[in-house]
Amino acid sequence: MKALTFKRYGKSPEIGFSDVPRPALKADELLVQVHAASVNPIDNMIPSGLFKAVVKFELPATLGSDLAGVVTEVGSRVTRFKVGDAVFANIFDQGTGSIAEFAVVPESAAALKPANLDFVQAASIPMVGLTSWQALKERIGLSAGQKVFIPAGSGGIGTFAIQLAKLLGATVGTTTSTTNVDLVRGLGADEVVDYKKHDFETVLRGYDAALGTVRGDSIEKSIGILNQRGKIVSLVGPLDVAFARARRANVVLTIVFALMSLRIKRLAKQQGVDYSFLFARADGDQLAQIGKLLETQQIRPVIDRVFPFDQAQQALDYLAQGRAKGKVVVQMR
């Protein structure tokens, strides 16, 4: 089968299409004919080797983690799905990828595709949906009346997280460029800072929580807008000791992650704020709950561009430019 792969880690990962064997199923897995796969920033980070120590691939490896498609085969212990079901899933950290004609999906990672969404729309959801759900509901415990800062509101995470935060009853602050102000307001953002005109840390105050979605000093600046006992959950690093322990990292890696997060942890503690790093996990049950929100149109997909399968590498390149409004999707069928 045809798949977008990378052959090595580093500056020259040799990303391109390869003919690879159709994957064999384990007893608790589904074989899915992929109709669409969305791309995420992590897909560009993996070949660089940034997460080589904690995310394991057998090279050459297929890229991508989000997909929507149709089940063509089920393992002997699968009970929740059958051949012919339309599903969507995130398979990040499963040792395989989704930008391919077929993909193996653990039963525990899959959910039925929302009936009102096409495959492109469904494929745009899993990573951003699960990340937002686990950050806002699990890690932060966001509740009605609280204020949450979600920077880069027009991006893939931002467009979903704003909508979910509003459903949870929160007041939402965000940043975006001048041309995207109306977009993020339409998604529910209450306080919008045009970063081309103002620095958010000089405008926003009294927030209970923040997501870290932008690399650089944005996370440190976010600490300054939070109340005492506020929480900041970073999706972009630095990695911390809790993450190392959750990954059962060795002593050396644990020390490395402790050193990486030392500065931000110290700054957060001085301000009475809790910092943590989140690596979203695949979770079919959560994805099914997200699917219900999509079916009832309480949350809607936001898609910037759709690339045909043979332009999947261009989709990754386009995403890397950092200008996408919502998600970038590769359509196979």
What is the secondary structure topology, with strand pairs?
Elements: E1 2-6, E2 16-19, E3 29-39, H1 41-45, E4 61-62, E5 66-74, E6 86-90, E7 102-106, E8 110-112, H2 119-123, H3 126-139, E9 147-149, H4 156-167, E10 171-176, H5 181-187, E11 191-194, H6 200-203, E12 207-212, H7 218-223, E13 226-234, H8 241-246, H9 251-270, E14 274-277, H10 284-295, E15 303-308, H11 312-320, E16 327-331
Brief sketch in words of this structure:
With 333 residues, the chain is of the alpha/beta class. It has helices spanning 41-45, 119-123, 126-139, 156-167, 181-187, 200-203, 218-223, 241-246, 251-270, 284-295, 312-320, and strands at residues 2-6, 16-19, 29-39, 61-62, 66-74, 86-90, 102-106, 110-112, 147-149, 171-176, 191-194, 207-212, 226-234, 274-277, 303-308, 327-331. The chain has 11 helices and 16 strands.
